[in-house]
Amino acid sequence: MANGKKIKIAIVGVGNCASSLVQGIEYYKNAKDNEFVPGVMHVNFGGYHIRDLEIVAAFDVNTNKVGKDVAEAIYAEPNNTVVFAQVPKLGVQVSRGPRLDGVNSYTSDLVPVDDKARPVDVVKVLKESGAEAVINYLPVGSQEATEFYAQAAIDAGCGFVNCIPVFIASNPVWAKKFEKAGLPVIGDDIKAQVGATITHRTLVNLFLDRGMKIERTYQLNTGGNTDFLNMLERERLQYKKISKTEAVSSQIEARGQTIAPEDIHVGPSDYVPWQKDNKICFLRIESKHFGDVPMNLELRLSVEDSPNSAGVAIDSIRCLKLALDNKLAGPIVEPAAYFQKHPPKQIEDRTARELVERFIQKYGTAAKSAPRKPKATVAA
Ligand SMILES: NC(=O)c1ccc[n+]([C@@H]2O[C@H](COP(=O)([O-])OP(=O)(O)OC[C@H]3O[C@@H](n4cnc5c(N)ncnc54)[C@H](O)[C@@H]3O)[C@@H](O)[C@H]2O)c1
């Protein structure tokens, strides 16, 4: 049985991913505890149901969204993901956050920002809303803005789930800040349910399991959402490329093999407006089998980008809540390894899932009383 307690969350960046998350909470609000819901590990996750996620604050800079109820803002332009649920008003308005480096020259035509409007005091809004967890959905490359909201989360006493490839949980300096504040952090760069990264990792592991060497590989991605438009600014991609490449190369290195940097190419490749939130991934693996005879694999994957990670976000938030309930501090290593592309420690997916199941058993409703002092869970 779910314990009926709420998880009060604040959303940073009310874009397509936030839209899928908020729609999903509504769509699955009546799911039975033992029901199969695609994309989440369990309906009842350590005592918390999907409907227990309660949005208590949200921040954006787009004038189409600021001041609106979150349930209206999630459908405002340029959001263009699939609408699978009509969310009734939540009674929570989107607050104007500081712009910082969140909007660039590529996205500014589609994202109207009133630079004369004064940003709110984010820490004050977080405190007054009673938020316990902040989820970061800013555009790729928002280094300053992400650091600003991570610090605001710490100052307001909130845990942090970082869904974007700016390194916080996997950056020892930020990991330490959360640990010192006695707060948990899960990141970085959320994995989709079945997306390009997990497909690439799985196929690479299949090759390795069957005694093959990965000679060369690429993963090219196109899409028509603002995430892809924003990523046309190549300078913003430094950490996205590291995160997506390491998610694959780590699997090869874990088997004692190596792949030269010039033989692996993983990244977002182009913006095709009519694709909207549909993402297409083109993937190739070149190898040799017995007798050094060459072979290769080509794959084309088509997914709706934002719903694809919303279930994973719901589980990440519920793990963060279990960490808060049990006073764990710093990076929460096992869930990060399963849910995020660039965790503090990479763990093979099946093992990581098993470790998350154990985490739920240990820290869920059935867990014994919480330890008194915050304890770090940073991997050695
Ligand atoms: N879709 C997935 O499966 C997936 C996977 C991994 C990572 N991500 C990452 O999640 C992030 C969100 O993706 P999305 O598709 O929702 O992007 P999006 O562009 O639709 O949403 C970003 C939102 O942030 C807002 N914003 C910009 N600057 C801001 C600021 N300073 N303060 C507050 N809000 C600000 C924008 O107005 C927009 O509403 C991206 O970084 C993306 O790469 C998504």
Attribute tags:
380 residues; Rossmann fold; Dihydrodipicolinate Reductase, domain 2; 4-stranded mixed beta sheet; 33% helix; 21% strand; binds nicotinamide-adenine-dinucleotide
Can you walk through the features of this model?
It is a single chain. The protein has 380 residues and is of the alpha/beta class. The protein folds into two domains: 7-191 and 307-376, Rossmann fold, CATH 3.40.50; 196-303, Dihydrodipicolinate Reductase, domain 2 (2-Layer Sandwich), CATH 3.30.360.10. 33% of the residues lie in helices and 21% in strands. β1, α1 and β2 form a beta-alpha-beta unit. The model is unreliable at 366-373 (pLDDT under 50). The structure holds nicotinamide-adenine-dinucleotide (NAD). Nicotinamide-adenine-dinucleotide binds next to α1, β2, α7 and α9.
CATH superfamily of the largest domain: NAD(P)-binding Rossmann-like Domain
Low-pLDDT residue intervals, each spanning 5 or more residues: 366-373
Q: According to CATH, what is the topology of the largest domain?
A: Rossmann fold
* Count of separate structural domains: 2
Mind telling me which CATH architecture of the largest domain this is?
3-Layer(aba) Sandwich
Number of strands: 12
Q: Pairing-aware structural class of the strands and helices? A: alpha/beta
Taking Cα atoms only, what radius of gyration do you get, to the nearest Å?
A: 20 Å
Question: Number of helical segments?
Answer: 11
Beta-strand percent range: 15-25%
The percent range for helix content is 25-40%
Order of helices and strands: EHEHEHEHEHEHEHHEEEHEHHE
Instruction: List ligands, each type once.
Output: nicotinamide-adenine-dinucleotide
In angstroms, what separates the terminal alpha carbons? 35 Å
Q: For the largest sheet, list the strands in their spatial order.
A: 3-2-1-4-5-6-11-12
CATH class assignment of the largest domain? Alpha Beta
Give the averaged pLDDT, no decimals: 94
Largest sheet: 8 strands, parallel
What best-fitting shape do the alpha-carbon axes yield? globular
